[in-house]
Amino acid sequence: METQFGLVRPWQAGEETDALAVQVITLVQPPASLDQVLLRETLSTVQAAPVARRVLVFGAASGDWLPAGFDLMGQRGGDLGERMAAAFADAHVSAALPMLLIRADTLGVTPDMLADAARSLVSGEADAVFGPAYDGGFWLLGLKRPDRSLVVGIPEPGQDGNVGGGRLLLDRLASAGLRIALAPRLEMAGARMLRF
């Protein structure tokens, strides 16, 4: 796949690899005050995770710092829930693998945390993975396949005084009868640094 950022080798079904058959989606829409150091740290962590595919979903891509090794996709949808639904659907259409979607403003995430979340989905231990955040939201959502009903309407952290849609999302996962694996609770840099 040729992108403006270089050649990206697509994931092929049946490919022999040590990577877990999961894709990690990083959803980010940079404002003027984007903290590129934080985003680079998050993307470096994703690059180091033993997963089959890495996807970067941007509202507008700029800068020469964008990494190689990621499939780049345009962002669709208005609010956070719609953008998440579109990112899950678009990634799954191009590679029917389980998905981990992470917030780009996550502090302290490690490749091992992503690998543990991926193993929960691949092993059949869980149908979903939820990573709670101290801001009341979440830093990670893992699904085996897209389900728009789980994410549409999830509010942006800080929107209208909302501290995050983590409880709403966790309740939706449970109400859908999904077996949920919990990832560690992590701190977020906040919407002031990065809109995702």
Offer a few descriptive terms.
alpha/beta; single chain; two-stranded antiparallel sheet; 28% helix
Radius of gyration (CA) equals 15 Å
What general form does the structure show?
Answer: globular
Helix content: 25-40%
Which percent range describes the beta-strand content? Answer: 15-25%
Average of per-residue pLDDT values? 81
Topology readout:
Elements lengths: L1 E2 L2 E2 L12 E9 L7 H13 L2 E8 L12 E4 L5 H15 L4 E5 L2 E2 L3 H12 L5 E5 L5 E6 L4 H4 L14 H10 L4 E3 L4 E2 L8
Parallel strand pairs: 3-4, 3-6, 4-5, 8-10
Antiparallel strand pairs: 1-2, 6-9, 7-11, 8-9
Report on this model:
- The chain has helices at residues 36-48, 80-94, 111-122, 148-151, 166-175; strands at 2-3, 6-7, 20-28, 51-58, 71-74, 99-103, 106-107, 128-132, 138-143, 180-182, 187-188.
- With 196 residues, it is α/β, with parallel strands linked by helices.
- Strand 8 and strand 9 form a beta hairpin.
- The longest helix has 15 residues, at 80-94.
- It is globular and about 45 Å long.
- Mean pLDDT is 81; it is low at 1-16 and 191-196.
Describe this structure in a few short sentences.
This protein is of the alpha/beta class.
